[in-house]
Design a protein that fits this description.
Length: 302
């Protein structure tokens, strides 16, 4: 319970941009595990955009713990999407190690990152794309980055397209394991979990600052505890997907029950939340499909 006291005692960080938020919150989360980072960064945020960025970054560290504190983005989506067969970015063997060539069209936090985790195709195996995850410095020769326009909601979250032209990659920067099964597929679940944990942290911070009813605070604390417990589960298991679906459903219900309480919140912060709330519906169909498959695999009926 020591962590919950720390979470409730987290002070809000008031800054104008995401780099300033990272600098201000660095000492807060340096030694925390990924799910606790998400909750603490959410609690420190004064807007959903900063909370989302904290949850996204925490999910990446949950996926690849050795990332440390280096700002990182994940590059998967291409012109045809992010399905394994849509990946055209190539990793080919060279005398110095490997060479990376390709174009990624949508990298969250890309323009603020120092390195990328890039999903690339190494060839074919058993008639399927052989995908790997490659760590690439965004300052390496041959890396071209183009910032994307701001989105209508959470404009604080930058996105970028990345082009790799004969980028040299060392053998140590090709992460072990299948790029899809070990990294890309579970990341979708880890991202949902950690982003919603950051949302819960943010709501707890708002509830504390604006003296929301104790019952609302208690519901949010229970959900935060559930998120911490789920972080220990296998991100690819059907039971995890069912439990995560339940957590997200209860979080959505808490948002609805707290609608009237936002009248107590500072006008600028409340207006930002109204603007940014559509973010929570992004990828909703993919989550529903994942939950449906989980139910089917466990023999459960809708």
């Amino acid at each position: 319970m020591e962590f919950l006291a720390r979470l409730l005692g987290t002070e809000r960080v008031v800054v104008d941009d995401l780099p300033s938020f990272w600098r201000a919150t660095g000492p807060l989360t340096r030694e925390a595990v990924a799910i606790d980072r998400a909750l603490l960064l959410g609690a420190a945020a004064d807007r959903l955009g900063f909370a989302f960025a904290g949850g996204y970054a925490a999910a990446l560290r949950g996926l690849v713990p050795e990332l440390g504190e280096t700002p990182t983005c994940l590059c998967a989506t291409e012109a045809g999407g992010n399905h394994p067969r849509a990946i055209e970015t190539r990793l080919t063997a060279a005398s110095t190690g490997f060479v990376l060539d390709g174009h990624k069209r949508w990298a969250t936090l890309g323009s603020l990152a120092e390195q990328a985790l890039c999903v690339a195709k190494r060839g074919e195996r058993d008639g399927r794309p052989d995908l790997v995850l490659v760590r690439v410095s965004l300052h390496a020769p041959g890396v071209l980055l183009e910032s994307m326009p701001e989105t209508a909601f959470v404009p604080e979250i930058p996105h970028a397209s990345l082009r790799f032209e004969k980028v040299q990659v060392g053998a140590d920067d090709v992460l072990p394991g299948d790029g899809y099964a070990r990294y890309l597929k579970p990341f979708r679940t880890l991202e949902d979990l950690h982003v919603h944990a950051a949302l819960l942290g943010y709501l707890l911070g708002v509830a504390r600052r604006y003296a929301w009813p104790a019952a609302e605070l208690e519901r949010l604390l229970v959900l935060a505890c559930a998120a911490r417990d789920l972080a220990r589960a296998d991100a690819t298991s059907p039971s995890m997907h069912l439990a995560l679906g339940g957590l997200l459903e209860r979080t959505a219900a808490s948002l609805v029950s707290a609608d009237a309480l936002w009248a107590q919140v500072d006008g600028a912060e409340s207006a930002r939340f109204v603007r940014d709330r559509p973010l929570l519906g992004v990828a909703g169909k993919a989550r529903e499909a994942r939950q449906k498959r989980a139910r089917e695999s466990l023999g459960l009926l809708d």
